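Whether sequence alone determines local backbone shape is best considered at the level of individual chains. For completeness, the protein is quoted in full, as a sequence line and a line of structure tokens:
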Amino acid sequence: MISRKNIKLISFTLLLVAAALFAVGCSGKAAQNRNAQAAATPSVVQVSTTTAIVRQLPRFFEATGSLAADEQTDVAPAVGGKVVAVGVDLGSFVQRGAVLVRLDDRDARIRLEQAQAQVTQQQAAVRQAEARIGLRPGQAFDPTNVPDVKSARVALELANKQMARFDRLIETGDVSRSAYDQQRAQRDQLQHQYEVALEQARQNYAAVETARAAVTSAQTQIDSARKAITDAVIAAPISGYVSDRQADLGEYVSPSSKVVTIVRTNPLRVRIDIPEQSVGSIQTGQSVNVTVSAFPDRTFMGRIARISPNVTATSRTLTVEAEVENPDNALKPGQFATVRIQQPQTAPAVLVPARAVKTEGTSSSVFVIKNGRAEQRVVQLGQSEGDLVEIKTGLAADESVATSNIEQLQDGMAVTQ
């Protein structure tokens, strides 16, 4: 049997355990009360703020396209021949008229010498033919001024006068019929001689014209030979850079052979497609900004130069071509470019620093600070301008937004500035 003393000891021990459990229960309840009180009191986040600003924002339409040379020409010779000199190589810059390739012109020079000798010979023949009819250089032809014709005419006029006297004498009987007939026969002979002299003069002048035509023909041969010599020098038709050189020394080229390709790279062209709804804001002369990945920190200026007259039916876009200034040849034909076309001014934009925007997935928001609390607003973003971003909807001008510790903020949270 348990003694009375042991029963007292057990009872005392149970009493101590119950007291300990009660103390622990009271302590846990106090902790829960403190936690609940702490949860009921929201934490305060310190933030920096800025006021949304309003100002005019340049508007741009952005599109992409490939740069192309303003002008490109494949140079071919006008005549065939052997290449004896090449003055350019890939990447060379040439001015208009610079020598690209020279062809062998020895045959053309021989033809020129022959033609010049032929001209000299024919000119001598002209002078001889002119001398036969007494024609001086530059003098108009009149067959009656030819010396033989003049002599025949004088003799004929004298015979006519003599015949007139014989006509009067035969009437008075002072001259015999035989003498009269003899005089008439002499006059008729002189008339025939005069007509023969005229015809001979005309024939001689025809010989002059033939000789002159021979001179002209020979002169044409000279011009042809000189042109062949000139054509043997292949010159640059435009100023630009050599993008390809096909001709090599010693090679024979024909008029169908391409020897050099030249591109003009200032300005460059870029062609882009404008959506149908933006057609009304595009016009010739409008400014454009162009950027390329090779120069991310540089902007190239240009202007709208050409606009297609029609909208493409399949894509519902309008093709526009811009000219881009490229004075230092930094841009290259074929580069992919982003083109921004400045649009007409619209209503002023509301701007805040980009760091004030909290992005979660596809949703963007800002925290408007009012009366010591943060109010979360879902916003629609527009274009960027430096470190600022446009807020299209969800924020009014002059409202203050948090710019720091925005990841710690929640809607309705107390803040201190």
Notes: The CA atoms of residues 44 and 67 lie 56 Å apart.
